[in-house]
Amino acid sequence: MSTAFLLLASRSQPFSIPGLDAHATGNNAVPWTIVFSLTLLTVLPAILLSMTPMVRLLVVFHFLRQALGTQTAPSNQVLMGLGLMMTWFLMQPVLVQVDQQAVEPFRSGQISGLEAIRRGSEPPKAFMLRYAREKDLALFTAASMTARPSKPQDLPLRVVVPAYMLSELKAGFEIGAVLFLPFLLVDMVVASVTTAIGMFQLPPVVISTPLKILLFVMVDGWNLLAGSLLKSF
């Protein structure tokens, strides 16, 4: 009986589930979508720190905390969250362009995965070139032994990204240095007063830190700082 059953099974049609085979042999964009999504999730932290304004924001927030004299307030998580939300706000027009030029055509099957990546990299490159200094671009162009292009848009990403990061670090340090000056003045005044009245046992930072925090709150410092950072882009 078992032999007869095997003969009947060999002569019958292959087993298949309706709809499953059609899905497996259908649109070829599904594997590309999975690969692209997993790759994007892996490199997302590096993209945020190298191709967005987050570098400048975090540097300025760090200088502000050091100038106020509060070592752990606001915490790193709070500053990271604020920087992330401001980065998302600033990059919203760029993300809309990427969605229109690359994501939607790829999702509808009009372009391939590699073409979607090429088109999707153009809006971030244009954003970075807007704030990258020519001096930094020339540095990495010469270091990569790349022929000098006729226009900056022809530069590859391996040149634009590090040049943009250097420019953002310089801008962040410039803003941080200017931000330090009024708080440094408060420290100098408090140190001079405590020294003049002979309060050698009391560290000046104990008095200057509350005064700096009070000054920062009175002038609505967070609003002014956020507005200045947004206007710098």
TrEMBL record:
<comment type="function">
    <text>Plays a role in the flagellum-specific transport system.</text>
</comment>
<keyword id="KW-1133">Transmembrane helix</keyword>
<feature type="transmembrane region" description="Helical">
    <location>
        <begin position="30"/>
        <end position="49"/>
    </location>
</feature>
<keyword id="KW-1003">Cell membrane</keyword>
<dbReference type="InterPro" id="IPR005838">
    <property type="entry name" value="T3SS_IM_P"/>
</dbReference>
<keyword id="KW-0282">Flagellum</keyword>
<keyword id="KW-0966">Cell projection</keyword>
<comment type="similarity">
    <text>Belongs to the FliP/MopC/SpaP family.</text>
</comment>
<keyword id="KW-0969">Cilium</keyword>
<dbReference type="Pfam" id="PF00813">
    <property type="entry name" value="FliP"/>
</dbReference>
<feature type="transmembrane region" description="Helical">
    <location>
        <begin position="213"/>
        <end position="230"/>
    </location>
</feature>
<keyword id="KW-0975">Bacterial flagellum</keyword>
<keyword id="KW-0812">Transmembrane</keyword>
<dbReference type="GO" id="GO:0009425">
    <property type="term" value="C:bacterial-type flagellum basal body"/>
</dbReference>
<dbReference type="GO" id="GO:0009306">
    <property type="term" value="P:protein secretion"/>
</dbReference>
<keyword id="KW-1005">Bacterial flagellum biogenesis</keyword>
<dbReference type="InterPro" id="IPR005837">
    <property type="entry name" value="FliP"/>
</dbReference>
<keyword id="KW-0653">Protein transport</keyword>
<dbReference type="GO" id="GO:0005886">
    <property type="term" value="C:plasma membrane"/>
</dbReference>
<keyword id="KW-0472">Membrane</keyword>
<feature type="transmembrane region" description="Helical">
    <location>
        <begin position="175"/>
        <end position="201"/>
    </location>
</feature>
<dbReference type="GO" id="GO:0044781">
    <property type="term" value="P:bacterial-type flagellum organization"/>
</dbReference>
<keyword id="KW-0813">Transport</keyword>
<keyword id="KW-1006">Bacterial flagellum protein export</keyword>
<protein>
    <recommendedName>
        <fullName>Flagellar biosynthetic protein FliP</fullName>
    </recommendedName>
</protein>
